[in-house]
Amino acid sequence: MLNLMNLFKIQFMGNSVSSYILCFGILLAAGIANRVLNVMVINRLKKVFSKFKNSKLRIMSKTVDSLRGPLSFLLYTIGIVIIVEILNIPEIAKKGAEHILKIAIAVNVAYFLVKAVDIFIEYLAPYVEKTESKLDDQLLPILQKVAKIFIWIITVAVILDNMDYDIKSILVSMGIGGVAIALAAKDSIANFLAR
Fold first, then answer.
1. How far apart are CA 114 and CA 145, in angstroms?
2. In this predicted model, what pLDDT tens digit does every residue of 138-166 receive, in sequence order?
3. pLDDT of residue 45
4. In which domain, by residue range, is 145 found?
5. Residue ranges of the chain with per-residue pLDDT less than 50
6. SS3 assignment, position 15
7. Confidence (pTM)
8. Residue 155: what pLDDT?
9. DSSP secondary structure string, 36-75?
């Protein structure tokens, strides 16, 4: 028993073996929580909603399914944040890990929002098809793509801002460029909408 206690006290790269075992346990717990979330909660909710013939409730099934990736990522991110706090690592490595986690969280939120846009457009599609005009049928996919591009642009801006870059000048340049493109495309858009 004494030898086992000494084994846990051995230092490797500034951390004891017991710290590494604890970190492995945290990752294992995050994996188990992820599996329980997927199997017990998300799959069951998806089955419940997919049984309904009502299209609104069937869309809830897709909404629940779209939560799978972001929630799994969130569980592992929480585990990694705890591990970074437990391990004795150099301050520069901690700062790097924080930047990477901020980037990963921003991308995760953007991914969820893009999925939400897809679900919202799918929800709107039956209503748009019922109208007499074909304009809304043509604008819906364009709206979907513009919303996704906007989400990713905002995500990149948030990431750059979190990495301490001055994004104000970039945003001003994009605004001026957007005005120039809008003025140049004004006649083309007017002709497209006049049809």
1. 10
2. 788 888 899 999 999 889 988 888 888 88
3. 75
4. 2-194
5. none
6. strand
7. 0.69
8. 92
9. HIIIIIIHHHHHHHHT---HHHHHHHHHHHHTHHHHHHHH
Residue type, 102: K
- Distance CA(117)–CA(149), nearest Å, equals 11
Counted domains in the chain = 1
Q: According to the model, what pLDDT value does residue 151 have?
A: 93
pLDDT the model gives residue 173:
76
Q: What single-letter amino acid sits at 123?
A: Y
Burial of 111 (0-12, 13-18, 19+ CB in 10 A): middle
Backbone φ and ψ for 166, nearest 5 degrees, come out as: -85, 105
Take residue 22 and report the two structure tokens written for it: 């604890």
- The token duo for 128 is 């748009």
Q: Tokens at residue 67, please?
A: 């939560």
Which pLDDT value is given to residue 56? 65
Find out whether 61 and 46 touch, Cβ atoms under 8 Å. Answer: yes
Compute how many other C-beta atoms are within 10 angstroms of the C-beta atom of residue 109: 17
Which three-class secondary structure string do you get for 114-136?
HHHHHHHHHHHHHHHHHCCCCHH
- Residue-level pLDDT at 128: 79
Q: Which of 194, 44, 59 is nearest to 124 (CA)?
A: 59
**Cα dist from 130 to 78, 124, 133, 144, whole Å:** 45, 10, 9, 19
